[in-house]
Amino acid sequence: TDNIRKSTSPKKDAIETAIKKAKYDYIITTDADCILPEQWLLNYNAFIAAEQPEMIVAPVAYKTNRSFLQQFQSLDFLSLQGSTIGAFGIKKPFMCNGANLCYRKRAFLGVDGYAGNKSIAGGDDIFLMEKMLKTYPGKVKYLKSKEAIVFTRPQPDFKSLKDQRIRWAAKTGSYTNTFGKIVGMIVFITNFYLILLFILAAFQQVSWQHFGVAFLIKYNVDFVLLFRSANFFGQQETLSKYLICSVLYPPFVVYIAVLSFFKTFNWKGREFKK
Length: 274
Description:
- By secondary structure, the chain is α/β, with parallel strands linked by helices.
- It has nine helices and eight strands.
- The strands form three sheets. Strands 1-4-2-5 form a four-stranded mixed sheet.
- The longest helix is centred in the C-terminal third of the chain and has 26 residues, at 208-233.
């Protein structure tokens, strides 16, 4: 009876079943392909003892090689992780990652687990955090420790990367965090604006100086975030690809955003529709 499907997400069903059987107060989640640091649990234990949180969000980074595709993904992921840390810093968290996440069993049961988003592919992390933030304000904390960083693998090819990012983007419409939605819109509009300026400059509708100023402003703002993130995660070498990635990133973001409204995507060997 424990294997009876209760939703369209086998992962969520499995986690809920396991949590009901769990004997201890705190649940820590990660993924099977992740590399865990030696002091991982000790860091969690010390943080729990000091803060008594209902949920803990912790850092995740990509374990990459020197290929350009993996370096591109690493920079993109560093921006997400940097934004996660910054959002917690200003007390407006909106992102987390199930590869390195912890919460009380009673808190999970208190928010009724994944009820309300079981039909959505993935989202076992962010949707849960949104419910925790509403039910336990001030009790969702970030564990900022280099000794707690969990490493995961980037996507092996562009098709896999595209499907992953479409899946991520497709979920944003179901998020309830207003600040997170605003940040997402700012990211999309900024990148779309750069592409629009480039096209207008190419057709001599605006000056190249106009485009250049806009590009440099975004380039420098993004670099500050990525520089600080790369230093924390020990991935300074990825910054050598920043210039070319900053050129490719705007069309990539807009491309994924457009596809997320119309295209199906593959995940875990299954096809999903928007």
